[in-house]
Every structure is written in structure tokens, then in C-alpha cells.
Amino acid sequence: MRTTTPTPRSAALAFLTAPVRLQTYKNLAYLALQFPLGVAYFTLLVPALAFGLGTLPLLVLFGLPAVGALLLGVGTMTLDRAVTGALLPVNLERHTATKSLDDGVVAYAKDLLLDPGTYLSLVFVLAKFVVGIATFVGLTVSSALVTVALAAPLLYDLPMTNYTFPLPSWLGGTTYVVDTLPEALAVAALGVVGLFVTVNALNALAWALGEATARACRYARVLGPTTTAPDHA
Hints:
7 helices, mainly alpha
């Protein structure tokens, strides 16, 4: 595949146009979904896995709860792949089963249990819990700081607001209070700079998560039509 190296001019243009590109808002939507999806995956999978693994030794159940837990993990990976494909411009491969229920329940369950992609799907979606928390913190903190800075000219002189900035020790170690309009405008100007930096950083984060999903999708199992088993002859 042919790739091109971005020039300084194109990189600067991409940086400056980030707040007005539609893809930016798709990226933000994708990042905002990481926390609720991560919590949902964790809430569904951990009890299912605990129950499934706990009942696996009971031959009377034939390990069906464990197989069900694994299928749930594959299903959540399928959902995560669909969300990523809908919001991010990434090429996602599809690794599906080589056996279907038409081949028999035992054959399908064996294919599920012996496929490393099944366990990769589980690990990937469970890791989304940690990723979701980190993304939520980064998204909320950065957006709050930028919003407060941009709103400084409107809020600085209101009784319920207090724009104070602690100064480092080499500048006296005191606090600087914004109490005039020019100072508030300077804070807003910093907010504009922060807006461009934050939006581009969040775009980069969405790109990194999309690339991680694309790499995982090469091997992680998802639901879908069966694929032909590789010929090892």
C-alpha cells in the first residue's frame, strides 16, 4: 500500500482545521463511548466468566456455562468492532468461526474453545474497562479546562466564580487572580490554544485506539458467517 509523508504545511493545516472536521466529532463520540462500553463489558463478562469457569468441572452441565461466557465475550468483541468501524476510518478484518452449528454443537464448541482468537476477544474487551476509565478522565478534564478558560471573559467578575492560578516557586509561589477584562481575555486566548491542542491530542488518542482495535481484529474472534479453515496440508 502506498503511503505519503505529511509535509509541514499539510500537518499545520490538519492541526488548524481539526475543530471543524466532521471526523473530529466522530472521534470524540468514539472516545466518549469507551467508558460506558468498558463498564458494560466488564459488568456482563466478569460474572459470566466466574459462573462459567466455576461450573466447568461439573460434567453434568457439559461445560455449557463456560461456552456461553466465551460466546458472550466474542459477542462483545463483535459489538466493539462495529462501533469502531462506524465511527473511525480504519480497515477492520473479520476473524470468524470455521465451524457452524450446522456442523454440530460439539464441533462448534470445540472450535470456539480451541480458537486463540476467542480468548484474545475476551482480553481485549475486558481491557476496555481500564481504557474507558482513562479516556473518561482525559476527556472530561481536558474539556473542562478548555471550557473554563474560554468562558473567562463572561465569568471572571461573577461573585460565584474565582479565576486564580497558583504560581511556581520561582515566580514567588503565590496565586494570581484574574479580576480584569484584559486578564480574562488573555485567559480566553490561552483557552483557544488549549482547544486546538486538546482536540488534536484527542484525535491522536482516537487514532491510536482505532489502530489497536484494527490490529486485534486480525486475530480476535467475532460473530459472523463462517470462514474456511486454513489448509495445513
